[in-house]
Design a protein that fits this description.
- The chain has about 240 residues and is of the alpha/beta class.
- The chain folds into 2 domains: about 110 residues, Ribulose 1,5 Bisphosphate Carboxylase/Oxygenase; about 90 residues, Rossmann fold.
- The protein is built from 9 helices and 9 strands.
- The strands form 3 sheets. The protein has a 4-stranded antiparallel sheet with strand order 7-1-8-9, with helices on one face.
- Helix 3 links the parallel strand 3 and strand 4.
- Helix 2 packs across helix 8.
- The protein starts with a helix and ends in a 5-residue tail after the last helix.
């Protein structure tokens, strides 16, 4: 058995699969069982009580993580005219119109968030296949299509740790919440922000228990089941 496999099995032994853990216990346990030398990403996986085949049961939204994701977020803004200066002054890394569209068509994708003003949407429509599969296509529902006057606010949110979440075909939401090196309180605050945003995004067609289960995991670690009641009661204040 390889060294990595052995350490992974040892980590599994420390987790009781029959138990659900409080968020505080889960964060502490995730750090205890980490067995790799790099700073792992931490994620939440939420199994939802909705049917993704129905339009009125889709779950989609944005969570603003108070402590970010532990990485530098590169922001691109599709805009033109006077709004270009506003976007640059607000800290966008890349700003432009037709020239950025062409650059992306040629294969350039060195950015993490794309924002657009409404007047640019017809021009970037042809980028749907390129940006859509990577979750980078500006969309009014996710707040990445912004009026020029709101650009500074939207760019600032993207910098802070703005994460989009969306129900997948198996009715699960997968969301990053930071790095394992974060202090426990920072991870807990980010968990609270994500859970709060998902609860607020409850669709009209949802019936019964909205969130069926929640697991915390790291890039290379096993899943840790969270106790739903204390997790849902966490305050984002």
């Amino acid at each position: 058995m390889g060294k990595h496999a052995k350490k992974h099995l040892e980590a599994l032994d420390k987790i009781d699969k029959t138990k659900t853990y409080s968020p505080q216990e889960a964060v502490s346990l995730a750090k205890q069982v980490s067995h790799v030398k790099f700073d792992e990403a931490v994620e939440l996986h939420m199994r939802m009580g909705v049917d993704p085949r129905h339009a009125d049961q889709q779950v989609r939204g944005v969570a603003l993580l108070p402590n970010g994701l532990g990485k530098t977020v590169r922001v691109l803004v599709f805009t033109q005219g006077e709004s270009e200066k506003s976007a640059r002054d607000a800290g966008a890394d890349y700003v432009g119109g037709d020239e950025l569209v062409k650059k992306i068509e040629e294969g350039w994708l060195e950015f993490d968030v794309a924002i657009a003003t409404p007047d640019m949407m017809p021009k970037i429509g042809k980028l749907g296949k390129i940006l859509g599969r990577r979750g980078l296509m500006p969309n009014p529902k996710s707040g990445t299509v912004s009026q020029p006057a709101d650009l500074p606010h939207v760019i600032a949110d993207a910098r802070k740790g703005r994460v989009e979440f969306k129900l997948d075909k198996t009715a699960i939401i997968h969301t990053p919440i930071g790095k394992l090196s974060f202090g426990d309180e920072k991870l807990l605050e980010n968990i609270a922000a994500v859970v709060d945003a998902v609860v607020k995004a409850k669709p009209s067609g949802a019936k019964g228990q909205f969130i069926k289960s929640i697991s915390l995991t790291t890039s290379m670690g096993p899943g840790i089941k969270l106790d739903i009641t204390p997790t849902l009661s966490m305050s984002t204040a």
